Structures are given as structure tokens and as C-alpha cells.
Amino acid sequence: MRTLKKMNYVFLGLTMAGVFSISAFVYQSRDIEKGAQLYNTYCASCHGIDMQGGNAQSLINGVWQFGADDSYIFRNIKYGITHLGMPAYENAISDADINNILAYIRAAEKERGVVRPDIANETGTMDYDMKIEVLAEGLEVPWAIDFLDKNTALITEKPGRVRILKDGKLVPGPVEGIPAVLNEGQGGLLDVAVDPDYAGNGWIYLAYSHALDVPGQNRPVAMTRIVRGKLSGNKWTQQQVIWEAPSETYRTTRHHYGCRIVFDPWGHLFFAIGDRGIQDQAQDPSLPNGKVHRIYPDGTIPADNPFLNVPGAMPSIYSLGNRNIQGMAIHPVTGQLWTTEHGPMGGDELNLILPGRNYGWPVITYGRNYNGTIITENTSYPGMEQPNFMWNPSPGLCGLDFYQGDMFPKWQNKLLVGALKYEDITLTTLADDRVIHTETILKNAGRVRDVTSGPDGAIYVVLNNPDVVIRMSAK
User: Are the beta carbons of 364 and 376 closer than 8 angstroms?
Assistant: First the structure.
């Protein structure tokens, strides 16, 4: 970091001094005074001379609609949000000057004492006034939640712990005996899913990054693994491995593991593995990564799986060409599988997953590489599916559920779509396979890692930064 000299501002009356953090996206020193001049030239006509908004939103109200981190704001300035009228400035403003504008905006936020709006007590939607309460805090990167019964939920923590939420309170100690996970990068303990017939069979399912040591190699290889087990008091018992990839397909990369677990009405278990950062392998049916898989809960393969009789293909594969799915939900009426998928920089997708279909990654995409370079010129290709809905910029989609419950009857069967980068939950209305309406019902509470409707009809949300679980109920 560089210490910036004290600078005075005329039209905002700001006097700033100190150290400003450098964006992880571009490492450059920042000139706040020059940033003020550039803001006047390029930004003030839409965002206002005093940053309080105009044709575009305010920059000093504590709400960042398209991501609050410096790297997100940098990308939005450079590459634009053209479908919303925000032009791309990559050919007009240098990277250094984008950072200068950022420094000026951050200085204004600090000078004016900008904080996030307080959503701790209540928030309003088109249909309901909502109460928000924190149920569990003091967690470490919580990742998923599912319910054993109306009073008991399980929460996973990425470092490798399962926590029990009982009668609205977090049981102090973690569940004992959870399998070891590789907690590096995006890997760790991921999803937890309770068997639809839990009351009868007691099975609970976990997805996690599983490591193998390779002789002569310092870095373990890893892949997503699915196990099931039972709870005996506070202990994990009777574990069974129900799906794991062949050891030769494990990778040294530490990202794009997926992974959600859902069950359809016909007794199938679905899960997804991301491309593990090796994008071309998403098109190879002999490999597990970049795919949606379908098995039975005991690990056996359904006889009608689409790749079962394809020579060389993995029999569990249900679809391919999926970059990194972190939201999965079964439609409560049709039983169809819907997913939300991370694109690269742009091109996050909502997809209806159908057997044997190819969802295109990386042959087609609406996004770019994170450094701005082109992945492919193609947004369509014969034999490859178009998304049912696409986002650009990328919200960082994570967590997905169809609302079911009596607390919000107007929302029955609508999708709850979570987002990490946008820090929001969007209520999404479908007509057959089309999105016809969206409404943001939570914003800037934190990075939404998981969202689900609970047995009581309330909406439960797993957040990162802060690492808490919240409950949204009708006021």
C-alpha cells in the first residue's frame, strides 16, 4: 500500500489524509484529487455532482447494487452495465484512473460517515413487511442449512464442522466425527441435505472437497465427494460413501467444487460439480467436473440416466457443460431440476436442467475472463442450451429454493435466488420456463451463501461477512 498525501477538494469540501487499500483486482497507487476531476468529467452527469444520484443511483447511500468490493466497482466502470445504460469505459479511462475515481468515491464515503442501511429489524417488499432476526452467529464461513424437523436445523461451516440449531438457538459444540475436508480456496465442507424420508430412515447427506495424497507430489489432489450418515446425539455415525470420483480425475486446483444436493419426487439425488477451473473438461463426459450428476440415495445409478450406455462416459452424469453450479432446487409442482450457475465475469445463469443436455460451457458464454479477455465469440451453438435467464454483471449466484409455506402465500412456488456479490435475495416468478418478474427482498445484509424456506414458512438465510444465519418472517 502507498500512503497518499493530504489533498483538499473544492466542490465537495472534503479534506482527506491517510492510507487507502488497493483493490485486489488492479494494484496501483491512487490519486484522489485526480479522481475528483475524472468523476466530474465522466460520472457526475448520471450519479450527481455530489454523488447523491440522478439518472443513476447514489454512490453514498451505503447500498452498492452490483457489488460493494473495489474489484467489483472497478469492473463495472471498466466493462460497463450496458443493458442498464452504464457504458463501458475501458477505451476511455485507464486502469490507473479508474482506481483514482474509486479512491475519490471511497474518500467521500469516509468523510460522510456512510454505513450500510440497518436491516436488522424489518424490511419492506411489494407484498409483505418482514422482520429479520439473527438466529446463529459466531460461525466460521457457514455454507448451507437444512432442517431435520420444524425445530432443528443443521448448518455446515466450510472448515469442516456441522452445527445444530435447536429451537432457534445454536448448540455450542459441533457434531463429532464429521469426515476430514480440504479447507483450501473454495473447498471445504459444502452442502448438507436431509433425506426426504428422514423420519423413517435417519439419513443425512454431506458434500465436501475430499483430498488424496499422491506419492512424490507435495500438493494433494482433490474432488467433490458425497457421503451420508446418521446422527446419534451429537455424533456422526454409520457413514457411507455414496459417490466419489475415480482417483485419477482428482485435481490440484482449489476452486469450482459446486456443490448442492437435492432430491426429486421420484427418489433421485442430484448434485453438481464445477469445472474445477479446467474449463474444457466440462465438455468431456468421461470426467466428473463441469457436470450435473444423478444417482439414487444409496449411490446406485438409475437405469435411465442419459449417459449410462455412452462408451467411456461416467454413468452418473445427467448434464454437461456446467461451469460452477451453487444453487439447485426442485420445482414443487413439476419435479424438474432448476439451477443457478456462476458465469465468469458476466453470464451467470438460471437453467432448467434436462437429461443429456449440454449447457455450453466454455464453448458458449455471455461472460469474459476476469482479466477482460474473450473466452469465446459464441453465445449460441448447435446442440447447446441457452440459459432460461442470464445476468450481466455476475451477481455471484449462490443458494436457490422454491418458496413453500403458509407465511407468505403470495410467494408460493416462486424462486428465492441468492447472490454473493450482489449481497441479495431475489424473488423470481416463473411462467413455465420463463422468468416474468423479479423483486429484491433482501439487500446488503451480507454475502448470501444459502437460502431456504423452513418448515415454519419463514425464510432462512446463510450469510458470509457477517457469518450468521438469519430468519425472515412476516411482520
Answer: yes
Partner residues linked to 16 by β-bridges: 7
Q: In angstroms, how far is the first alpha carbon of the chain from the final one?
A: 46
The pTM (predicted TM-score) of the whole model is: 0.90
Q: What is the pLDDT of residues 195-253, one digit of tens each?
A: 999 999 999 999 999 999 988 888 999 999 999 999 999 999 999 999 999 999 999 99
Q: Is 293 a catalytic residue?
A: no
Cβ burial, residue 335 (10 Å; 0-12/13-18/19+) = exposed
Place of cell 467433490: 224
- 456-460 CB contacts, 8 Å cutoff, 24+ apart: 456/150, 456/405, 456/407, 457/405, 457/406, 457/407, 457/408, 458/405, 458/407, 459/403, 459/408, 459/416, 459/425, 460/135, 460/145, 460/153
DSSP readout, 389-408?
A: EEESS---EEEEEE--SSSS
In the chain, which segments carry CATH 1.10.760.10? 3-112
- pLDDT tens across 91-113, in order? 999 999 999 999 999 999 999 99
Backbone angles phi, psi at 397, to 5 degrees: -60, 130
| Distance from the Cα of residue 385 to its chain's centroid | 22
Residue 66 CB neighbours (<10 A) = 18
Q: Which of 47, 210, 256, 342 is catalytic?
A: 256
Instruction: Output the CATH code of domain 3-112.
Output: 1.10.760.10
Grid coordinates given for 140: 466460521
Beta-ladder partners of 144: 156
Give me the CATH code for the 122-474 domain, please: 2.120.10.30
Backbone angles phi, psi at 45, to 5 degrees: -65, -25
Indicate the DSSP class of residue 86: B
